[in-house]
Amino acid sequence: MDPHLIEVQVDTQVAYDGHFLKVQKDIVRLPDGKQSSREYIKHPGAVVVLPVFDDGSILLERQFRYPLHDVFIEFPAGKIDPGEDTLECAKRELQEETGYTATDWQFVCTIHNAIAYSDEHLDIFLARGLIAGERKLDEGEFLETFTAALPEMLEWVRTGKITDVKTVIGTFWLERLLAGQWKP
């Protein structure tokens, strides 16, 4: 660690306690000894699945995201339930959202997608050996699945058709993984 950069919590309170998110408001002591406040979203964490078919095509979703009032292209993903193992969560989310299960799972990495205002982390998994089945969407969940080729996805990232951060990062990981340049 870099102790000369560390902020120390002096006081904490819950500013908002919702069904899904909580907002924390802390008073911290800065490295120079002064105090400041920090507001941030507490998040249980999530998983992201990079599902790759035997032919190299990639399973994706299209889903409306209310905060931005638009439909986004994304990898299957979902919130980790309390006490849930992250690999089990990834398996559950892939099946619930797409109907697919996978015979080969590999942990890829953990990312922190909003470090300035949230403690959220996302664990990314590569899923291969996909087997079609019946999906089990959550109540109120609406999405479409489709497949794309990696070059197409890279072009969508370049042109701004894919802007979701977990999907952008997952696409760049897939580029390296499928080329054999990186190992999970």
UniProtKB/TrEMBL annotation:
<dbReference type="InterPro" id="IPR000086">
    <property type="entry name" value="NUDIX_hydrolase_dom"/>
</dbReference>
<keyword id="KW-0378">Hydrolase</keyword>
<dbReference type="GO" id="GO:0016787">
    <property type="term" value="F:hydrolase activity"/>
</dbReference>
<dbReference type="GO" id="GO:0006753">
    <property type="term" value="P:nucleoside phosphate metabolic process"/>
</dbReference>
<feature type="domain" description="Nudix hydrolase">
    <location>
        <begin position="41"/>
        <end position="170"/>
    </location>
</feature>
<dbReference type="InterPro" id="IPR020084">
    <property type="entry name" value="NUDIX_hydrolase_CS"/>
</dbReference>
<protein>
    <recommendedName>
        <fullName>GDP-mannose pyrophosphatase</fullName>
    </recommendedName>
</protein>
<comment type="similarity">
    <text>Belongs to the Nudix hydrolase family. NudK subfamily.</text>
</comment>
<dbReference type="GO" id="GO:0005829">
    <property type="term" value="C:cytosol"/>
</dbReference>
<dbReference type="GO" id="GO:0019693">
    <property type="term" value="P:ribose phosphate metabolic process"/>
</dbReference>
<dbReference type="Pfam" id="PF00293">
    <property type="entry name" value="NUDIX"/>
</dbReference>
<dbReference type="InterPro" id="IPR015797">
    <property type="entry name" value="NUDIX_hydrolase-like_dom_sf"/>
</dbReference>
